[in-house]
Each structure stands twice: as C-alpha cells, then as structure tokens.
Amino acid sequence: MAEPAISASQAGALMESLTFPQCLLAHARMRPDAPAIREKYLGIWQTTTWSALSTLVLQMAAGLAARGLKRGDHIALIGDNRPRLYASMIAAQCLGAIPVPMYQDAVAAEMVYVFRDAAIRIAVVEDQEQTDKVLEIREQCPALSDIIYDNDRGLRNYQQSGIESIDTLLEAGSRYEQSNPGKVRQAVDAGGFHDDCAMFYTSGTTGNPKGVVHTHASLILPSRTVSQQEGLGPQDEVLAYLPMAWIGQNIFSYAQWLINGFTINMPESQETVMIDMREIGPTYYFAPPRVLEGLLTTVTIRMEDASPGKRSLFKHYMALAKRIGGRILDGDPTVSFAERLQYQLGDLLIYGPLRNALGMSRIKLAYTAGEAIGPDLFSFYRSLGVNLKQLYGSTETAVWVCVQPDGHVRADTVGKPVPGVEVRIIDSGEILVRSPGLLREYYKNPQATAEVRDAEGWYHTGDAGYFDQEGHLRIIDRAKDVGQLANGALFAPKYIENKLKFFPYIKEAVAFGQGQAEVCCFVNIDFEACGNWAERRNLPYAGYNDLAAKAEVYDLIQDCVNRTNADLALDPKLADSQISRFLILHKELDPDDDELTRTRKVRRGFIAQKYAVLVEAMFAGKDSQYVETQVKFEDGRTGAVSATLRIANAKRQQALAKAA
C-alpha cells in the first residue's frame, strides 16, 4: 500500500535533520511521480521517478545486506555517473555503510592504496573495464569479497568467484526482504544525522591520499544553507557529468539533489556531454575553469573559421557585452536605456544563439571553483548573461566556505563566507575555517587530523589569502608553496601558473624559483587551440611534440609569458616574480605519469625531481637541453619519449612601484 503524500510545508519540517536515505524516502512520499534521474541511453533519455528510485534503492540495500554489508563497512563505487551507481551509494547509506567513490580513469595500481586503507568489502563498478581493474588488484586487497557490475557487456562469460551483476544482487535483495521483512527500513530509520555517510580521498599531491570522513550533517547543513540562499528547488535541472569521486560532484549532484529534490541528468558518455547539455538545458550548473576554458576555446576556433562578416558582427557585440553585460546582470542602474536596447539586439543576434549552442540558455545559476579563473574567461560568460559565480572550499570543508553574492561578483575574489561559516586569516596569511561542513576526521590518521583541525574547531586550509576592503576573500596560493626568491621577494608559484593558464594557448604551467635569483617555468601548450592556430597559418605539424617545438609556437607562447610579466609588474608584491626563462615541454603532463593528480592539480615537487635536468638547465642559462622521459600508455605499457628542448628568454617589465 502506497504511503500518503505530504505537503511542502510538512516536508520542510520533516527534512530538517534527515539522512540522505531518509530524504529519498521523503521525496518518494511527497512527489512519487516526479523525475529524480534521467539517463541518456542509446540516444534516448530514460527517466527514473522518485518512487521508482526509492524502490530500487531499498531492494539494492537488501541485496547488499544479503552479501554481508553492515554498518561501518566501506563500499567502493567506480564508474561514470549512472543511476544504479547513485542508487548503490544511497543503498549503502541505508545500511549505515560508507560509500567511497573512486576516479573511474585511475589505473588499477592507483586503486590499491584506497582499497587497502579503507578495507573495502564490496566494489560496485560500472562495466567490464572497471571490473577488470578490480580483478587485477583483488589478491592485494584481502578485505574485498564482492565485485558487482552494472553494464554486463563483455562480462557474461566471466567465471571468477565473487562477481555478479546488479540484476543478480536485486534478486538476492528480493529474497532477503522476504525472509527479513522490514529489516532494511528499520536500518534506514536507525540512521542518525551525525552518522558517517561518505569518505572522499584527497588528491595526494604530496604523498598518499587521505580519506576525508563526512557525516550526513556535514554534507547537508552548508548545502542546505546555500540552496536556500540561491533559491534552488524541485524545479531545477542539473547535469551530472563530473567524476563521482570529486567532492564537488557529490555536493552539486548528490547532496543538493537529495535536499532539494531537483532532477539530475546523466549524459551518455563524456564525448556527448555538450550535445546532452543542449538537449537538457540545465538551470543549475557547475564547471571547473578547465571546462569553461574548453568551451570558450571551441567558440573561439569556430569564430576564427567563420566568414569575415560574422566575425565582425561577433566582435562588435562581444565588445558591447564585455562593457555592459556584467553590469546588467548585476542590476547596475547606471546602464542607460540605449545601451540596454543595444544589448537586447545583441542578445537576439549573438548572445542568445551562443548560450543555446553552449547549452546555457536556461541557466539561472552557475558556479566555478577548483582553480583560479581568468578575468577574461569569467567576464565572457557573465557578459553573455550567464550568472557565473566563484566559490571557495575543499574536500575537507564539504565545498562551501565562500560564495559570491548576487550583485557583488568579481573575477579577483571568491566572495564572502557562507552564512554559518567563520573564516579568519592568521599572521602567516593562512586561511582558517570553522563550519558545520568540516570533516569529522581523516580516516585512521589522528595525527593528520590534529594537524589540520585545532582544539577550537578551526580547520587550517593550507591556503594563503586575505580579505579586501569589501569583505571578499582573495586567494594567493597554497601557504606552503608561498616562498621567497634569493633577494627575499615574494614567490607564489600557483599564482603565476594560473595567470599563464588564463591564455587559451597554455594548458598547464609549472613555475620554479624558490631560493633562486629568478623565476623559470615549464609550459604545456593546449594542443587543440595551438593546433587550430597553426592550421590557419598553414603551419604543418605531425603531433604534440612536433607542434610544441615549432619556432612560431614558441613565439606565440613567449607573447603570453611577456603579457603575464606585464601584469605581474603592476603588483608591487609580485613584480620580482616575473618569468625570466621558459620552455615548452615535449609531452603533456598526465595523471597516468603521476605528474598531475586525478583532479589535474600539478604535483610540482614530483615534476621538479622528474625533470631536474631541465630545471637545472633553465637556471644555468642554457639555450637547450636534451631529455628522455618515461611514459605510461593507456594499455598499461611503458615507454620513453625524448627531445632536445629549446629554452627561451622572456621580457621582464619594470615594476610599477619602482618606476614611480
């Protein structure tokens, strides 16, 4: 017999301190036929209602209970965003078990540490690829008993023990429920708001990753506060396309989904994300700067290939949008009627069609975070009428620390503290946070927990920053990375790297200079942007290595470096950190080669050791240097690539303060 529906006002009171599974069941009672999840499968959008999802979750929880999963156990989730992987996450939480999402693009060897550290009991995986990875490491993971897969393509003839499909698990769940009626619902009801509910591993830029333990309360409380502040609700649509292992994806497409009851949409594949986004038209969107940069690069390339008339029209109206688009979005009353009229014409001819092509026609709120975003990139989206805002947070803070309020959005800050969150800056410049969203602990690592969370409840972020006169937080760099040049001047490598990455032709950068007389850096070109640039100039190239070595490409990157120096020269604190020399690496920095984390953060220390011969050559004043590098291929094989790299000089500018 179906449970009676309850009103929205009753729901508000009931949802105050519910766990995630309890939130799911509440939505199923209130809005049983409303869409909870859509998935693009074989070109067709398939919808799962809240009622159907709750039935699936409870049956899956019964199946997991039949396989011995119990409160406090850890269960791994590996794969792209898929409805039954999300269902398995809630199902584990129904039993009081703790899901551990993992990066689907990680190689098998990278997973061993997490499996062993968390003593993973059961792994729920998407397909054959992920099943094979887990099978490869199973002997090294003594706690692992079951591998459960979603997509059975290629797996029907696997005979190894402990492997089964989700369909088989659901059948086991039906039998378990028959012999243990109501036991799963009792487990759901027994769940507490402050119980552990998920564990996310850090990216491990300086060592082994750490398991960040969050409770239902720490993930729900700040997410609910921001949802209320931004007016999110059941009417919203979200595209779930980022890795499940990333805390941001779990906040925007899991925590806030179950809090607000909106619909999450899962693309068919990473290759179809843009097509699927245009079809769905999300109203609430999150993208790290690299995604936004990729979209803008695509737009730029297409416009450069357009006819002269279209290019001229585009440049004219984009110049107008850059001047007044952001001001209109912020509600600036000083924008004249004539300017608004021109903007409306531009919206009809350029901005509207462009938003539609990007899948952003219906977006009422968009966030970006994870890395600094270039002011030009930021203003581009806001000038189109997309309400893009920056936020600041981390895995340990459940994302929400600072958010830019409407009407006070700027490219050079990350906004003001979220209501209920305290932020202070200590004498060293480090940012401290006290929030209901803080981690409970680092798993099995009390020493690391004590190092970041003091007796007064302040979390030491490791980031350096300061508040400006309007109370907005500005981030400089990681506190441990902020150093000094030989003359005692401030050196902030990440700050410099981000400025370089603001250019569309530069994908990654690594700056060196601690204790040195000057700053030198490595550059990775953006292969697509530089490739298109080369093709329009009839410049032939055979691949990344060949393109990166072209003299013309060096000149292009040198101009970007020189413009970065001109910008740094305007900052009295960082004027001495202008780049003196640079080189373009012969290969792209890659997580598979341990040069980047899975969230694409530069492992600067590892890179400095791996390419020590190049670093030494730059500071020694050499014009070139031979290097041979070990690389890992997608099929697991290893090989080597070698090249003689040119080292170029950059033009340093006279510092503004000194010039005065």
Layout of helices and strands:
Layout: H1 8-14, H2 20-30, E1 35-41, E2 44-49, H3 50-66, E3 74-78, H4 83-94, E4 98-102, H5 108-117, E5 120-125, H6 128-137, E6 146-149, E7 163-165, H7 166-179, H8 183-190, E8 196-201, E9 211-215, H9 216-230, E10 237-239, H10 247-260, E11 263-266, H11 273-280, E12 284-286, H12 289-304, H13 308-329, H14 337-358, E13 365-368, H15 375-383, E14 388-392, E15 402-403, E16 416-417, E17 422-425, E18 430-434, E19 441-442, H16 446-452, E20 459-467, E21 473-478, E22 483-484, E23 490-491, H17 493-501, E24 506-512, E25 519-525, H18 527-536, H19 544-549, H20 551-568, E26 579-584, H21 604-610, H22 612-619, E27 624-632, E28 638-649, H23 656-659
Parallel strand pairs: 1-11, 3-4, 3-5, 5-6, 6-7, 10-11, 12-13, 13-14, 25-26
Antiparallel strand pairs: 1-2, 8-9, 9-19, 14-15, 15-16, 17-18, 18-20, 20-21, 22-23, 24-25, 26-28, 27-28
Helix pairs in contact: 2-3, 2-4, 3-4, 3-7, 5-6, 9-10, 13-14, 13-15
